[in-house]
Amino acid sequence: MNTNYTAIQLQKFASTFREASKIVSQELRDPDLGEVKVRNLYCGINGIFDTQIARNAVDYVSVQLPTLTGVEALGVVEACGEGVVGLSEGDAVVTTRFPSGYRQWNTAPASYFVKVPDTRPEWLVLASTGVSAYVALKQTGALANGETVAISAAAGGLGHLLVQIAKLHDCRIVGVCGGQTKGEFVRGLGADRVIDYKTESVADVLGTEFKDGLDVAVDTVSGSIFDAFLDNIAVHGRLVVGGAAQDLEGEPEIVTAPRIANKLYYKGASVRGFMNGLLTDHWPDARTWLFERFAAGDIKVTFDEPQFKGLNGVYDAVDRLLSGRSMGKVVVDLS
């Protein structure tokens, strides 16, 4: 067997992931006690995270250069070290540990991996982005059946799963996205009202049709969409902050406006930060729920249409996600 493999390594800090990293050769080692050696087949793309890592702008990750990159990967166990329990050679596994994604092989503790039924990339999406969507709604958002839920970036990798999970809880769903094609996609997932922010005012639509009516709102964009969600949060409503894509190009936007306390206090509402890495205890139950619903045909995983292959394809995939044109989950075939 070849004793080397290739991976994307961050070598400096720069404004883009492409500029900050390069493909390098790494030594392929056998697993030690409690480790497994995995051949990666697919990786999931997290373009905003990758860009912020390249800029050393992720507060909760201490980056020591050089470092390998990527988070999500699905692969096959090729060898097990002594003492490994629950995994065997030939098992399909998923990891969501940085830096496990953008590499051909990964030798790491068995605890970093979760066994999945087979090597279809759908399991990668469910075990990573799907878990994030479920935990954001159920744990941070305290979602209850029959509530009204608003979702920004509803056609994206996270958003299209948020819509389906909320629909399976018999919720009324408001999906925000840009363009007719994305709107039709989100409507087909079960959204009751789609707001095309390119042709409609999110604030006007919510203020007219859902005034003070959002029980749960999940925002990953920030800016005016966050403001519109906040203005229309319901009594005891929960606004979940899952990201701030609008702030990617610089420091967070500075605004001059009344503090949000009054908007929350008289409604008994709340703004809640969603950080998936702080909620790991809930991941197993989330996976079980998602896997069962997928097997039953209740949840569909949609992949972005362009097909990216190999580590070189990771760069184009990151650019694709950052372009705002992607629809569904962006993955790269590493096989």
Automatic annotation (TrEMBL):
GO terms for molecular function: oxidoreductase activity. InterPro entries: ADH-like_C, ADH-like_N, ER, GroES-like_sf, NAD(P)-bd_dom_sf, Zn-ADH-like_protein. Pfam families: ADH_N, ADH_zinc_N. Gene3D superfamilies: Medium-chain alcohol dehydrogenases, catalytic domain, NAD(P)-binding Rossmann-like Domain. SUPFAM superfamilies: GroES-like, NAD(P)-binding Rossmann-fold domains. Residues 16-332 form the Enoyl reductase (ER) domain. This is Alcohol dehydrogenase zinc-binding domain protein. It comes from Hirschia baltica (strain ATCC 49814 / DSM 5838 / IFAM 1418). The lineage of its organism: Bacteria, Pseudomonadati, Pseudomonadota, Alphaproteobacteria, Hyphomonadales.
